[in-house]
Amino acid sequence: MNEEYLTLFIYLFSLFVATGTFGVLVYTYLKYKIKALFFWSAAWMFFILMQVAFYTGNKERVAIFYSFFSGTLIYGALVYFKEHGDFRTSIKPELIGVIPPLFALYSMLLVRLDLPYSFSSVEVPSVILSGIFFLFSGFVLLAMGKKQRNSFYLGILTIAFGIFVLLYLVRMSFSHCPFVWILRLHFAWILIGTVLSVGMAFFMIKLVTSREFLFFEEPVEVKVVLEPGAKVITPEEYEQVKKEFKDYPALAFVRSLNVPEKWRVYYLSTEEREGRISPTNLAYITHLVNEYFKEAKEKGVRGVVVIDCPEYLVMYNGFESIAKFLASLKDFAVVNMGVLLVVIDEEAWDKRQLAILRRLFS
User: Fold this and answer.
1) What is the pTM of this model?
2) Alpha helices in 145-216 (DSSP H)
3) Among 84, 109, 308, 321, which residue's beta carbon has the most beta carbons within 10 A?
4) Could you read off the pLDDT of 58-89 as tens digits, one per residue?
5) Residue 60 backbone dihedrals phi, psi, to 5 degrees
6) Which residues on adjacent β-strands are paired with residue 304?
7) What is the H or E stretch that residue 342 is in?
8) What is the per-residue pLDDT across 142-196, written as a single tens digit (0 to 9) for each?
9) Fold of 229-360
10) How far apart are CA 265 and CA 271, in angstroms?
11) d(Cα 107, Cα 119) in Å, to the nearest integer?
């Protein structure tokens, strides 16, 4: 009897946490209108409905709501990653093609195991397919986790939850076994599922309320108003910019790590590490700047991009390439009403190069 009460308590606790997560996601979506939050809110609503269906023994609804939970979760992750990450290089959409054969092979394995709980039960195929999608959602969140630690932990837990869901048939077989010790294993499975779902809820709340996720959402005060376009500034002026824009969501490509904490910073280096970009990868820098300016404009914020090491870029790409590169960035700034600031030490350039740069930024 005590174990039954404990199981009921775990179920209710899981529902309570899921409802709280749903509330936080809805509130954050209504406040900031971030598209991914709409789908994640829906995902947790379906999770709550799935839990209720599971507790009441409604297999058809378990199948439906599990499918909607996994579908909206991965859709929200892909929407956010497409808008804020390097979708082309970090995610391989073609891998979705492995889902049908993976589902078929795993299904055949379960049938051959001849477990007490039948694979032909109405909800099993949908639940297993949902488990595969949870795995894919986890890998998408892990890719986002290269820049957001909460997303990394959420990705790990989502992958673990996907494995847990894939073992649904095994778990349900335990509940149909007459041996007491195996029934206790079924209780342990319920506890594991609750821990995983609570962990996912915790890190999703931390993710969607983090500064990185709400990069353009926090209100900021700017002491100096910059005109849209591109501008060359001296190292001395750069120090002043860092003070005046220390609380502004600027995007910076730097060699010096002495930058405001609230800036989104990429360190230019030939060493491949997290948060670093090769100086020869101008295409990726261009992509990041373009996406940043467009996002800032959509949010009604004037985007500010800072490049403090054009000399370093010239070393690896040549002056002509960098001049064209900066011209493209200037166009992005002008079109999106943003500001491009390039820090130049005049002693590092010859007169011809300086003249071209000044003409370019005039």
Assistant:
1) 0.64
2) 149-166, 168-175, 180-208
3) 308
4) 888 988 998 999 999 999 888 877 665 544 44
5) -60, -45
6) 339
7) strand 339-343
8) 877 666 778 889 999 999 999 998 888 777 666 555 544 455 566 777 888 889 9
9) Leucine Aminopeptidase, subunit E; domain 1 (3.40.220)
10) 16
11) 8
